[in-house]
Amino acid sequence: MKIVVLDAYTLNPGERRWEELEELGEVVVHDRTSQLEVVRRAEDADVVLTNKTVLNGFILKQLPKLKYIGILATGYNVVDLDVARQQEIVVTNIPAYSTLSVAQMAIAHLLNITQQVAHYANEVQNGVWSAQSDFCYWNTPLVELAGKKMGIVGFGNTGQATARIAEALGMDILVFTSKSKKALPKKYQKVTLNELFSLSDVVSLHCPLTSENKEMVNSFRLSLMKQGAILINTSRGGLIDEKALERALLSGKLLGAGLDVLSSEPPSTGNPLLKLKNCFITPHIAWATRESRTRLMNQAVENLKAWMEGNTINNVLDI
């Protein structure tokens, strides 16, 4: 069996070998694959593993030998599922591998905005504290989170994990979710999306990107937010109208935004959010702790093994 990994670098930038995968067949690993290279590299493959390399219908129809696609991520929008189903290609994904890491990053962004740790560490290194007349020094708002309202949009694994940490910090939890009220912890309040934006001191996004919720964080919903509120996004950049967010940050409507994702990645140097002092952007790394990536690699192998043994797990086409 020939196994081709199309874009291995972000998952495994040389930290470990692919020996577990190599036990299952002939493995060819590519760090990156452009759209023009996909067919040539995958034409003899029985199995293709992909993270962000798109396998659209046009490409899949040129790969008649392909039997299995393993998505090295939770989201599966990179594969044309209709064509995969027509060609009887099994498609699997990796659910919940990065739950704790992404929740940790969401809270890290929140704490950075409220406490400005990086800013003050730099100020101290630059001698600003040493030049003060008093024993302490600050030049930004410092915010205590206890008693504030945290709005969680999406209550899957990551939304729930983030809510638990926020609750431990003393925050009250508001949730927008399709789950029933009975499925939520008793202390949590289920609200509509507009209610969540208007009532929350912090809004944190934890939902997949769909055609229905694209740019759900728009001018209207940003206008609903409290003066000095905070927006966190560790989910998908397309959930936010970035022009509207720019205006909300420049006007001072929001105290700050913490983003691990943008609508285009990597962003163009002209993206206005990159220059805003109250917009803190990390380069899509919430998922990328070594522990998280290890779970991902291990599960990818387990998915493939299960399929080879006739007991497919994490089958996207069964969703």
Tell me the number of helical segments per DSSP (H or I, 4 or more residues long): 11
N-to-C span: 27 Å
Which parts are unreliable, with pLDDT below 50 for 5 consecutive residues or more? none
Radius of gyration, taken over Cα atoms and rounded to an integer in Å: 22 Å
Structural class: alpha/beta
Q: How confident is the prediction overall: mean pLDDT?
A: 96
Strand order of the largest sheet: 8-7-6-9-10-11-12
Proportion of residues in β-strands: 15-25%
Instruction: Give a short account of the largest sheet.
Output: 7 strands, parallel
The total count of strands amounts to 12
Helical fraction equals 25-40%
Index terms:
319 residues; alpha/beta; 7-stranded parallel sheet; 5-stranded parallel sheet; 11 helices; 12 strands
Secondary structure blueprint with pairings:
Blueprint: E1 2-5, H1 19-22, E2 26-29, H2 38-42, E3 47-50, H3 57-60, E4 68-71, H4 81-86, E5 90-92, H5 99-115, H6 117-125, E6 149-153, H7 157-168, E7 172-176, E8 189-190, H8 193-199, E9 202-205, H9 219-224, E10 229-233, H10 242-250, E11 254-259, E12 279-281, H11 290-308
Parallel strand pairs: 1-2, 1-3, 3-4, 4-5, 6-7, 6-9, 7-8, 9-10, 10-11, 11-12
Question: What do you see in this structure?
Answer:
The chain has 319 residues and is of the alpha/beta class. Helices cover 31% and strands 15% of the residues. A 7-stranded parallel sheet has the order 8-7-6-9-10-11-12, sandwiched between helices. It has a 5-stranded parallel sheet with strand order 2-1-3-4-5. Strand 10, helix 10 and strand 11 form a beta-alpha-beta unit. Helix 5 packs across helix 7. The chain starts with a strand and ends in an 11-residue tail after the last helix.
